Amino acid sequence: MLHVDLDAFFAAVEQRDKPSLRGKPVVVGGVGVRGVVSTASYEARKYGVRSAMSTAEARSRCPHAAYLGPRFEVYRQSSRAVMAEMRALSPLVEPLSLDEAFIDLAASGLTGLTVDDVEAIANDLKTAIRKVSGGLTASVGAGTSKLIAKIASDLDKPDGVVVVPAGTEAEFLAPMQVTVIPGVGPATTQRLNLAGVRTVADLQQLDEDELIRQIGSAHGSSLYRLAVAADERPVVSDRETKSVSVEDTFETDLIDRAVLTLISDRMAHRVGERLRKAQLSGRTVTVKTRMHDFTTHTRSSTLAGPTDDPRVIARVARRLLEESDLGGGIRLLGVGVSSLADWIQDDLFTEEEFAAAESAGSVEVVELPSRPRDQRGYHPGQDVEHAEHGRGWVWGSGRGRVTVRFETAETPPGPVRTFSVDDPALTKVVHAGADADGEPQTDHNGPGE
DNA sequence: CTTATTACCTGTCTTTGT
DNA sequence: ATTCACAAAGACAGGTAA
Predict the structure, then answer these.
(1) pTM given for the model
(2) CA A244, CA A275: separation in Å to the nearest integer?
(3) Which domain holds residue A61?
(4) What's the number of domains chain A is made of?
(5) What residues of A are designated binding site for Mg(2+)?
(6) pLDDT tens, A251-271?
(7) Which cofactors, by name (predicted)?
(8) Could you read off the pLDDT of A305-338 as tens digits, one per residue?
(9) Residue A49, domain member (yes or no)
(10) Measuring CA to CA, how many Å separate A178 from each of A184, A190, A202?
(11) Residues 304-343 of A with CB under 7 A from strand B
């Protein structure tokens, strides 16, 4: 496997496009009062400027650098060209961000390679990248797993190649600080240090149960395996999106609820648009607030069915914002949607579609049984309509409840909901097809029609 | 002083299935 | 057909990390 990392990517693109910046310190990131550094060129790094540092601190460390806002469209374009070169080498490429990706060479039949073979492949790739990107350089790590490739790519930056021979993985890792392992950040490092663990060798000697007690079961068992270089994680291209969100830090803290409501509405619309563009919809709406002291709070609410409707997202976000304590004002507001489904809301019948289907004779509507509290009125396979959840069909009934699955023949199964048989919002019972035996009649007898 | 976006984990409650 | 107990699953909020 290869891990490819473009060197100081955003800054390098700016230097490529503006020759006067070459050889000079360049800092790309937020340029406002609350901006942070995305990328510093190697010239700027000499002054101690680092990613994630506040722009204010970077300015004091390196006042004569060029400070530029990011041009994501340009970076995306170069990224696409570089990723295409990788895919020419092997179809199995997993981008981690605009400037980073894993490549599984075995997926294109490149197996049984010597260290020299891999080095040659990496150098050829770097040449190809330089050619299609207008001179960008990359650092490449290679090894028998994602973990080793990722760590190796960091060892000889910029413009380096490091190949770790098969069989030497554990000894390669042993002398390194635990912080080199992806997933071990400041919090985990501190907990490990308290347990006397500083290097991977220390970690290799620790008891797994002890490790799990210190840092939790999921993290503990995966870290335990990574420490001995046991890493079977596959390279996965086309990973599925699991959430979509928008957030913004304000120049000054905001407290006015009317202002924040308008901002929330705009954010909800942007999220909805992005969901629609990606043909996604989701059930959970989350509002995020960051207080002046940087504490962060989230409030979320889950709908019965997925939506991509900006108005629905905005309405829920408004309510969540109302329930949020703004304290002395907030520095950040965010709106997101998660619990994504790959099928969209209009799989559920709208009122218009229902009426059209009805007049076309493909469905007939009958009155609810005269004793609506009698669950014998619902049979498996019957179609029903619920005021809030749309149209679905009866999955089962009993114990005073009727279970409805919302789906159509063409879609994956929708959510199953259980209602009390006397739920007034459970309105229409529909017999699909021609053999409905009750007298066909249009009727609704509940609220919410 | 401390971005934007996404993913994933955990503890605690609540809901739902059997 | 109804009730009860228990387990599994889901919802929520916060934390960690890249």
Answers:
(1) 0.77
(2) 7
(3) 7-72
(4) 4
(5) 5, 99
(6) 999 999 999 999 999 999 999
(7) Mg(2+)
(8) 788 999 999 999 999 999 999 989 999 999 999 9
(9) yes
(10) 7, 10, 9
(11) 331-332, 334, 336
